[in-house]
Specification:
5-stranded mixed beta barrel, about 35% strand, 7 helices, alpha+beta, about 25% helix, 8-stranded antiparallel sheet
């Protein structure tokens, strides 16, 4: 049993419970004694993921995950008074292992029996490190490779820590993708349509808008023909919020139009867009609605500064410890949540 009391889990980590359920950690703010995390893999004799002779099933959509929690793992659905919602939270006394992306990367470097997915994961990280001058100890590997439940067609999921490092790698990605001659390629329309089929189970959006927005993203694409998604996460010293410093109160479901005035945190997970000139189209009319936020990587790079957006999601009142109050739109909790630029 791992001593989680001395470990700070963060976005991109995975944890495994005493009943062998495996969760992906979400965000950087967690309640005392618990970890906010989405369930991803569970033991299942009919599953298609194998590890050490055991079979697991991967769950993709939020609808599937919450149904699984309600039916088989209800103790991990906990009402959180700070976030004013039922969240997927794991008590630390039920965690038997924490999977660390940076430690996993070191492990892969030391091994000599890597499979094709693991080799390409190292090759991608080596390319990004060399081209951006970001050292290996600021990079990790997440996703199915981290928990040894990948298969031959699995994606590669690198993770970069620290704002400065993330920006360096991001500019490197944009440059390499623009060259169009190396091993990194943006998705073509056929590949984006396949991605749309998978994403639309969880996030409804017109295909035309999806193609237009997704094709300009750098955090996703192909490396040597394999899908990749790169996650950018801030260092702990950059995270000022502590659990309970800010209170969030759900006040309904809302559709808005607005203009993005700051996209400097659009590449990070969680991502955030500061907005202005907000018009409430549907839902409760409150002001000021100052930002659109999401804990899901699919909403990264969704809009740029100066662009007009239309967005729909959960409206929350944000109350900071100094008494400041404002509103935000939180995306990612429902299939009908979206943000469209242009």
């Amino acid at each position: 049993m791992v001593n989680m009391r001395h470990i700070k889990p963060r976005e991109g980590d995975f944890i495994e419970t005493i009943d062998q359920a495996i969760f992906g950690v979400k965000g950087l703010v967690h309640p005392p004694g618990k970890v906010v995390a989405f369930i991803r893999y569970v033991p299942d004799p009919k599953g298609d993921r194998r590890r050490n002779g055991e079979t697991f099933q991967k769950f993709y959509s939020l609808v599937e995950r919450y149904r699984l929690l309600q039916q088989k793992y209800p103790r991990y659905l906990i009402f959180d008074p700070v976030f004013d919602d039922y969240l997927n939270e794991v008590p630390i006394e039920l965690i038997k292992h924490r999977y660390d992306p940076r430690r996993k990367l070191t492990e892969l470097q030391d091994r000599t029996d890597l499979d094709e997915v693991e080799i390409q994961a190292l090759e991608l990280i080596e390319l990004l490190s060399e081209q951006s001058s970001v050292t290996w100890n600021k990079i990790g590997i997440s996703g199915s490779v981290l928990v040894r439940l990948h298969h031959l067609t699995s994606d590669i999921d690198p993770i970069v820590y620290g704002s400065k490092n993330c920006l360096s790698v991001y500019e490197t990605l944009r440059r390499l993708l623009a060259e169009k001659q190396g091993s990194l390629k943006p998705y073509n329309n056929k590949e984006l349509k396949k991605l749309y089929e998978a994403r639309s189970k969880d996030t409804i959006m017109p295909l035309e808008d999806f193609l237009r927005i997704e094709k300009r993203k750098a955090l996703q694409g192909k490396f040597k023909g394999r899908n990749y998604f790169i996650r950018f996460v801030k260092d702990w010293r950059e995270v000022k919020e502590r659990y309970g410093d800010t209170l969030y109160k759900s006040i309904g479901y809302t559709k808005i139009r607005a203009i993005v005035v700051d996209d400097s945190e659009a590449i990070f997970t969680p991502c955030r867009y500061e907005i202005d000139k907000v018009q409430v189209i549907e839902g409760r009319k409150v002001a000021p609605i100052k930002e659109v936020t999401s804990f899901r990587g699919r909403f990264c790079e969704q809009a740029k500064i100066g662009e007009r957006i239309k967005a729909q999601g959960k409206l929350e009142e944000v109350r900071e410890k100094d008494g400041t109050r404002y509103y935000r739109l939180l995306l990612g909790g429902r299939v009908t949540d979206y943000m469209i630029a242009g």
